[in-house]
Amino acid sequence: MSKNERLALEFGATVIPHAVFLGVFLGLWEYAVRVGWLDSIFFGQPSGIASFLWANLIQSASLWKEMGWTVFGTFSSFVLGSIAAILTGLLFVMMPRLERFLDPYLTAFNAMPRIALVPLFILWFGLGVASKIAIGVTLTFFIVLSSTIAGMRGLNQDHVVLTRTLGARPAQMFAYVTLPGAIPVIFSGLRLGLLYAMLGVVGGEIIAAEHGLGQSLAYLGSTFNMNGVMALLLILSVLGMTVTGIMTYVEKRLLHWQ
Amino acid sequence: MAMVQRLQFPGETASIKSVGKPMSEDVAIEVQDLEVSFGNRKVIDGVSLQIPKEQLVSIVGPSGCGKTTVLNLLAGLVDVPRKGKLLVGNKSPRLGDDRIAYMLARDSLLPWRTTLQNACYGMQIRGVPAKLREERARDLLGRVGLAGFENVYPKQLSHGMRQRCALARTFALDAPYLLMDEPFGALDAQTKLTLEELLVELWQQERRTVMFITHDLAEAIAISDRVIVMSARPGRIAGNFAIDLPRPRNIRSLQKEPHFHELYAQIWGVLEDGWRHSDV
Ligand SMILES: Nc1ncnc2c1ncn2[C@@H]1O[C@H](COP(=O)(O)OP(=O)(O)OP(=O)(O)O)[C@@H](O)[C@H]1O
Ligand SMILES: [Mg+2]
């Protein structure tokens, strides 16, 4: 058997069961709606979802535009929140007393349900994307901060001792030991931080916004367009998976030594 | 005998005057009347020892007798009040002294660096130019039997190979004093023998002063010119033995030599004595 044949077989073995499962699931759903076991007002129906996607993703670009707003908001809050968190983490590792002092305040702030801040942020930053970015940042920041601190505190002490006996300057210690040693842990924080940035942005859009997938979702829900709601949930889930997929790829490239 | 000397802290560069008479020409590392306490507990009580230049000297002693503490003091790693005098090549210990190379039981390889990059690491920190350090690292990797593994990451190496790489990193440094804390303590018996042979071989190729700490008396006798025995806590010197086995030695066949066993029995007696008379 050639390599290609084997690959094709393997592919078939993994894909076919899923295709069968999904086919049966969607078929039953469609059937149940058509014979009246399920109410399409509450559950939508696969054919309706498909035609919604067709109309809004392919015939018109309306959903792409909304997605653009959501993605822009997500990435902006991710980047801003992560940079702020990594810098703060560095500062805390260098100044443990500052961290001890600020810890109760940070803990209290982090304990607050972030969505509760939306009214405040909308007042400060307006209905547009800025207020959504602000929410995303407050979520990403704490996750990345705690992983940055954990990563830099959890260094292998042998590496630190060896490097000290070699007479390393602080900058060398940072570049050769602290940073590379902390990156795997920081990355697990970044991965989660990205998902939370999206959560914050979409959550904010649902509450009050002019644009974005969350805003569309809220609108479709309020007009009882269940096919549209289901389609958007599907899109959000695919978006979330794409985003984590990108992170996994970057992580694999960067941490190939693991 | 142990007169009170002014406290010295690591990192302090004491002038020759303040450390008393300069040590004799052929002494590389000297410890005199060292007393160290952690809190109220005295862990080292009047240790004096001299390590002659270019010799390989082992220190053996029961766990907790302060071997690592002495070594770390010499490397300038611990900052603890103490009495007595410590000299490495006529100078007080200083952290990061580039005349010292330090090696631990665990290999301390950086997992994000390849074998070659790890072998270069010490030289890189100490500012050896890139081309020179690569040349030197390749040469040493060849000598420790890691040729062909230059571009491999540590996770792909066996335990023994990782410690070979650490040995290459240590010897690649242009440092006359090597401080080793049970470098082979975590290896299996066979690998240990191989690495002992390798250490002695490297040491014979380019003479350095080696202070080698171990739990393993057979290892100490097999590789050393001299074995210093410390007694259990608080650490004192219980004995100091010249090992007159001729060099080059075949470490694997020493087991068959009666004189090896005589030395072993003699030193073992002192080791056991030190264990019995400890106050723990
Ligand atoms: N930083 C420290 N604080 C308090 N006590 C310490 C510290 N470092 C070492 N000690 C104590 O000093 C004593 C000597 O420790 P050291 O590590 O030097 O022993 P050792 O001879 O190297 O033992 P082993 O053979 O187990 O490595 C021990 O009783 C240990 O508990
Ligand atoms: Mg020790």
Quick summary:
Chain A is mostly helical.
Describe what you observe in this structure:
The complex is a heterodimer of chains A (258) and B (280). Chain A contains eleven helices and no strands. Chain A is mainly alpha-helical. In chain A, helix 6 (118-125) packs across helix 7 (129-153). Chain A is flat and about 75 Å long. The two termini of chain A are 33 Å apart. The mean pLDDT of chain A is 92. Chain B is globular. Residues 1-22 of chain B have low confidence and may be disordered. The two termini of chain B are 25 Å apart. Chain B is built from seven helices and nine strands, in the order E-E-E-H-E-E-H-H-H-E-H-E-H-E-E-H. In chain B, helix 2 packs parallel to helix 4. Classes of the chains: A mainly alpha (258), B alpha/beta (280). The A-B interface holds A 156, 158-159, 161-168, 172, 176-177, 180, 255, 257-258 and B 75-77, 95-98, 100-102, 104, 106, 108, 110-113, 121-122, 124-126, 153, 155. Bound molecules: adenosine-5'-triphosphate and magnesium ion.
Which descriptors would you attach to this protein?
heterodimer, A: 258 residues, mainly alpha, MetI-like fold, 2 domains, 11 helices, B: 280 residues, alpha/beta, 6-stranded mixed β-sheet, 3-stranded antiparallel β-sheet, 7 helices, 32% helix, disordered N terminus, binds adenosine-5'-triphosphate, binds magnesium ion
